[in-house]
Amino acid sequence: MCKSRYGRRKREISSKVIGNDIVDLKYSSSSWTRPRFLDKVFTPKEQALIFSSEHQHQTVWLLWSMKEAAYKIHVRQFGERFFNPTRLVCDLISKEKGLVRIDDNCYFTESTVTEDYVYTVAKQDQNQEVCTSIFETKKEEYTIQSNVLKQQLLKSISQIEKIDRNVLSINKTHLGIPEVFVNSEKSPKLISLTHCGRFSGFAYA
């Protein structure tokens, strides 16, 4: 049984960390059918969910996006990276909501599944309010998408928080975690960025 926000947890960097992930279903195609892919990424229980689903392709990438979004929280929370997808265990509570467990830590997820993409936001606190947005970019080049995504996020923060856009910037930590700065000073705002294929998404709290 995992320890939720109501139980004891390890010492954390932040009590309300967030993460997000998006998968372009066209861009990802059916690569999950490759030999041993499922065994490397998903637990037997997760594979059972996939094979019992009427929409297996969407379910694969739904579980994938849940793992990725929760992984981003874990890296920020504990300052460690690892590659062991089956260490992240997913449970689907409903079509939109789920839970990801990494050892004794639980993360709540909310997902949007369409014919074009799967988008997931993960939170430590299921009641936490998160501002999030998804949009399509015409060019799929990584650098262009990354720059457009950052600009869209900063524009949103500027408008909602009433902060001059010119004093906002984004820098990454040594772990690759994006952070917002105001007048070159780190902001307490937590952000998460993701893009894949034709789609990009940001979340902040």
Automatic annotation (TrEMBL):
Lineage top rank: taxon: Bacteria
Gene3D superfamilies hit by this protein: 4'-phosphopantetheinyl transferase domain
Keyword Transferase: yes
Pfam family, one: ACPS
UniProt KW keywords: Transferase
Domain 4'-phosphopantetheinyl transferase: 18-121
GO molecular function: holo-[acyl-carrier-protein] synthase activity; magnesium ion binding
Entry protein name: 4-phosphopantetheinyl transferase family protein
